[in-house]
Design brief:
Its cofactor is pyridoxal 5'-phosphate. InterPro entries: 4NH2But_aminotransferase_euk, Aminotrans_3, Aminotrans_3_PPA_site, PyrdxlP-dep_Trfase, PyrdxlP-dep_Trfase_major, PyrdxlP-dep_Trfase_small. This is 4-aminobutyrate aminotransferase. The protein is α/β, with parallel strands linked by helices. The protein is built from 15 helices and 13 strands. The protein is globular, with a radius of gyration of 23 Å. α3 packs antiparallel against α12 (334-349), α4 (69-76) packs antiparallel against α12 (334-349) and α10 packs parallel to α11 (253-266). The protein has two domains: 15-58 and 351-447, Aspartate Aminotransferase, domain 1 (Alpha-Beta Complex); 69-348, Aspartate Aminotransferase, domain 2.
Length: 448
């Protein structure tokens, strides 16, 4: 059987998959589990573990890194990195994450997950805000005592602005900036933080230029109005280069340039959440590189394809004024950073970002042909020029992706009724016919 062939010989999920899920449910809440291979079925995976597998399953470079003496040592002797890092830690960082640091951001804080990376970025922004207010003065006794009671002035009322339909994680701070679905937020106390409208662009873009420009300007005005009038001072703004969980929503470079200008004007820390868009999926190593910002973002957070997490920054004032203010036992994991280094090596050695951009252009062209043939089922195709970060709206996305699995392709959904494609960076032109054939079969059966 060819490596490029898919095989589905049972219902989806099959009997072994169902039995495995039942076994899991005896011990954990397994309602979110999607088993796709327990029955020996083989799929083209264009969802890649929620966009987190960078260079394929069982990649030889990653397997070699996993078996290296450095990895074995890191796994057997997990360091509390803030206090007791290995003498090799600086070299590990220099040979991995610091190789691909976003332009202008040469400092790094490592973390465990995307949610934690965003939480830590918020803390850094709040600490900087108050540091500026103190203008070099020491903490007061009132601040020290009041913070222990969760009261002002030691616990100040500050805010982070996010956008409608955004997703930034599931911690208390990150969840307060998440606006995509009620299931994430219901029953959980949230901070009194503002949300602005993210541009709701009309497609095809070339047919709605004036309308989309007006929409983006409306949203920028709303952002500035919220920053200047919200009942709490806005210390930071967080935005995704492409809103992912909220429906694969795009905006133009001009919109993001406008955000950068507004945040600079008002002294607001601009956090770009690259948890999903980072590491090459958009045809640039970092999604915000598409925007030609007038100056770099203040903070860029990352996780998923990086196989580790954290944030990059450039301003030394974002290093807290005292030690232990950004700190936890692990502060990331050297084993995961070693694996990230192997991912980075594979990406750079094989020029996978450029490949992703090239393949994405071909894939998008094929998808637009399907949109012309099935205009009611492939609506608002988007992601042109954004690598393989491609999506479209359809009717009953849940039923659509189930039908795709039956036809040998694993895809994902987001937003309300959006199908999102998240191929790995090793996805090539050879894989496109498999995906398009499956899409055609499903669309034909639905429209029949």
């Amino acid at each position: 059987m060819s490596l490029l062939e898919t095989k589905v010989s049972t219902e989806v999920p099959g009997p072994k998959s169902k039995a495995f899920q039942n076994e899991l449910e005896r011990h954990i809440d397994a309602r979110t589990v999607h088993i796709v291979d327990a029955d020996g079925n083989r799929y083209l995976d264009v969802y890649s573990q929620i966009a987190s597998v960078p260079v394929g399953y069982n990649n030889p470079t990653l397997l070699a890194a996993a078996q290296s003496p450095e990895m074995l040592s890191a796994l057997a002797n997990r360091a509390a990195l803030g206090n007791f890092p290995s003498t090799k830690w600086a070299g590990i960082l220099e040979n991995s994450l610091l190789k691909i640091a976003p332009k202008g951001l040469d400092q790094l804080f490592t973390a465990q997950s995307g949610s934690e990376a965003n939480e830590l970025a918020f803390k850094a922004a709040f600490i900087l805000y108050r540091r500026r207010q103190r203008d070099g003065k020491a903490w007061t006794d009132e601040e020290i005592q009041s913070c222990m009671n969760n009261a002002e002035p030691g616990s100040p009322h500050l805010a982070v602005l996010s956008f409608r339909n955004s997703f930034h994680g599931r911690g208390f701070g990150s969840l307060s900036t998440t606006r995509s679905k009620a299931v994430h937020k219901l029953d959980i106390p949230s901070f009194d933080w503002p949300q602005a409208s993210f541009p709701a662009l009309k497609y095809p873009l070339k047919s709605h230029v004036a309308e989309n420009e007006a929409e983006e300007q409306r949203c920028l005005k709303e952002v500035e109005q919220l920053i200047t009038s919200w009942r709490l001072p806005v210390a930071a703004l967080i935005v995704e280069p492409i809103q992912s969980e909220g429906g694969d929503n795009h905006a133009s470079p001009a919109f993001f340039q406008g955000l950068r200008d507004i945040t600079k004007k008002h002294g607001v820390v601009m956090i770009v959440d690259e948890v999903q868009t980072g590491f090459g999926a958009t045809g640039k190593f970092w999604g915000h590189e598409h925007f030609n910002l007038t100056s770099p973002p203040d903070i860029v957070t990352f996780s998923k394809k990086a196989q580790t997490a954290g944030y990059f920054f450039g301003d030394s004032l974002l290093v807290p004024d005292k030690a232990y203010r950004q700190f936890n036992t692990w502060m990331g994991d050297s084993a995961r950073v070693l694996m990230s280094g192997a991912v980075i090596k594979e990406i750079l050695d094989n020029d996978l970002v450029a490949q992703c951009a090239r393949v994405g252009d071909t894939l998008y062209a094929e998808l637009t042909k399907l949109a012309e043939t099935y205009p009611t089922l492939v609506k608002n195709p988007r992601g042109k020029g954004s690598g393989t970060y491609i999506a479209f709206d359809t009717k009953d996305a849940g039923a659509f992706i189930k039908a795709m699995k039956t036809n040998g392709v694993n895809v994902g959904t987001c937003g309300v009724e959006t199908v999102r494609l998240r191929p790995m960076l090793i996805f090539t032109e050879e894989h496109i016919p498999i995906l398009i054939n499956a899409l055609t079969k499903v669309l034909s059966s639905i429209s029949a």
